[in-house]
Amino acid sequence: DGGITQSPKYLFRKEGQNVTLSCEQNLNHDAMYWYRQDPGQGLRLIYYSQIVNDFQKGDIAEGYSVSREKKESFPLTVTSAQKNPTAFYLCASSTGQGRYNEQFFGPGTRLTVL
Amino acid sequence: AQTVTQSQPEMSVQEAETVTLSCTYDTSESDYYLFWYKQPPSRQMILVIRQEAYKQQNATENRFSVNFQKAAKSFSLKISDSQLGDAAMYFCAYRSPLDDMRFGAGTRLTVKP
Helix (H, G, I), strand (E, B), or coil: what is residue A45? Predict the structure, then answer.
């Protein structure tokens, strides 16, 4: 079945540590996205990538980094510079800039900083 | 950046009844797309319905329909014959060819048996 997988589902991190969230898709989508979701707020865009080896900052990129070495994979690293990293993180993909480019979402990763 | 506003943080509906969730957006563009996503307790985001701005006809998907008022920049979601499985967070979203997907803050829908 085609879809998006994110791992792990729950992640705990000590303050000052970097942590990497995995996102893999087998939908053959060109574009991939990372969102952060906090209670009472909608999804906020962290980073996105329209093509392999290229990515752009979203609205809240500070303290995060990404890579896009393969079409299928778009890992997100939460660095120690991120001041409030506890949140729910969603990865999404889409076919690109087409007219009906809805985004398909993974199941999410809940990150808790201890 | 464009903004999307959902003015109802919470809504409730009796099972089998109809409920309407509100969404307004701010844009100066004429070509864009609007979406409603559902996020159940599993937190998996699921697309419910979508609307192209240049289409005047309101989109419909089974029990879900929209009331798209382009001049008023309004995009409400109507759920008919509500079911217990409709209980979820609902997010309105906007996207244009020149802009990323923008989400509202969400409306939590409770369905009472």
Answer: strand
How close, in Å, is residue A106 to chain B by CA atoms? 7
pLDDT in tens, B26-66: 999 888 999 999 999 999 999 999 999 998 899 999 999 99
In degrees, rounded to 5, the angle at the alpha carbon of residue B12 between the alpha carbons of residues B8 and B49 is 70
Measured CA to CA, the distance from residue A74 to residue A94 in angstroms comes to 13
CA distance linking residue B34 with residue A58, whole number of Å = 20
Chain A contacts in chain B segment 48-77 (CB below 8 A): 50, 52
A5, A54, A33: which is closest to A102 by C-alpha? A33
- Residue B103 is nearest to which of A43, A48, A104, comparing CB atoms? A43
Q: Out of A42, A90, A100, whose CB is closest to B50?
A: A100
Q: Which residue from A61, A26, A9 is spatially nearest to B44, judged by alpha carbons?
A: A9
Question: A81 to chain B, minimum CA–CA distance in Å?
Answer: 25
Contact B79, B86 (CB under 8 A): yes
Instruction: Give B62→chain A minimum CA distance, Å.
Output: 19
